[in-house]
């Protein structure tokens, strides 16, 4: 028992050491990049007007914090992303369920879903503006269009690959399709749904930014396109950094949901 206990402790120590090395290495790479960027901009190796620098970006952000304008842009993009993400999640699950319930419907719609998923979504954004106008609804729909078709296909594939023996057992016990769906298919597909959500949150953010490029008067996408037009590179790079932070935060939120689910079930 003592040898096993010592071995387990040794393994745990090695695992902790590995995780610590990974964290430190990540931070070191980021800090090295920021230092090199700042140094080369200050000594003139790169043009600080075009490439900006971490200190200029930080000062630009602080200035927009003081006048509170940055919070409007962050909130607008975050709101549009979350709404489009929630709608994509709900609608894709509902349509995937409908396709699973009706094999005939799935055979009819499958080629259309594949074609719609392969369309370049940036080409749809101008068309959506003509149809819906330059409103937040258009931007939310643009965010949905990037993720929804692939999400439906992935979820439907997950539903159809659930263990067939369990479904047959439901029918053997005189259950119906509703019982098979609620007792087997959906519970077995929750990990796939969560994995799909991880992908969709990033895709919805991309779609929202595409929509804001064309149809917004506020938001980080609008800030990016406006700053590129007037050559305010500090604003542009600051907006990109904020988008990266937002994407990481939303992804971490989905990870938290996944951990809570795994602990409970």
TrEMBL record:
Keywords: Cell membrane, Membrane, Transmembrane, Transmembrane helix, Transport
Principal localisation: membrane
ABC transmembrane type-1 domain sequence ranges: 74-254
Subcellular localization: Cell membrane
Domain of life: Bacteria
Transmembrane helix found in the keyword field: yes
Residues annotated as transmembrane: 24-45, 82-101, 113-133, 139-159, 199-216, 236-257
Topology of this chain in the membrane: Multi-pass membrane protein
CDD domains: TM_PBP2
Protein family per UniProt: Belongs to the binding-protein-dependent transport system permease family.
UniProt protein name: ABC transporter permease
Organism: Faecalicatena faecalis
């Amino acid at each position: 028992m003592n040898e096993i206990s010592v071995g387990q402790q040794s393994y745990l120590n090695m695992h902790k050491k590995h995780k610590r090395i990974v964290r430190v290495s990540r931070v070191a790479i980021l800090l090295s990049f920021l230092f090199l960027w700042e140094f080369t901009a200050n000594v003139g190796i790169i043009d600080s007007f075009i490439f900006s620098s971490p200190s200029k970006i930080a000062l630009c952000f602080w200035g927009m914090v003081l006048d509170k304008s940055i919070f409007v842009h962050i909130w607008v993009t975050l709101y549009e992303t979350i709404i489009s993400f929630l709608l994509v999640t709900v609608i894709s699950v509902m349509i995937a369920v409908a396709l699973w319930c009706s094999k005939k419907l799935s055979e009819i719609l499958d080629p259309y879903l594949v074609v719609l998923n392969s369309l370049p979504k940036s080409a749809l954004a101008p068309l959506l503006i003509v149809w819906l106008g330059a409103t937040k609804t258009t931007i939310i729909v643009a965010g949905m269009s990037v993720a929804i078709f692939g999400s439906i296909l992935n979820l439907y594939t997950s539903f159809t690959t659930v263990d067939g023996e369990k479904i047959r057992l439901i029918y053997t016990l005189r259950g119906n399709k509703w019982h098979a769906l609620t007792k087997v298919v959906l519970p077995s597909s929750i990990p796939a749904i969560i994995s799909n959500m991880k992908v969709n949150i990033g895709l919805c953010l991309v779609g929202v930014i595409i929509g804001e490029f064309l149809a917004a008067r506020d938001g980080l996408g609008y800030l990016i396109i406006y700053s590129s037009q007037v050559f305010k590179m500090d604003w542009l790079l600051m907006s990109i950094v904020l988008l990266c932070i937002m994407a990481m935060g939303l992804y971490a939120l989905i990870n938290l949901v996944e951990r809570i689910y795994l602990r409970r079930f």
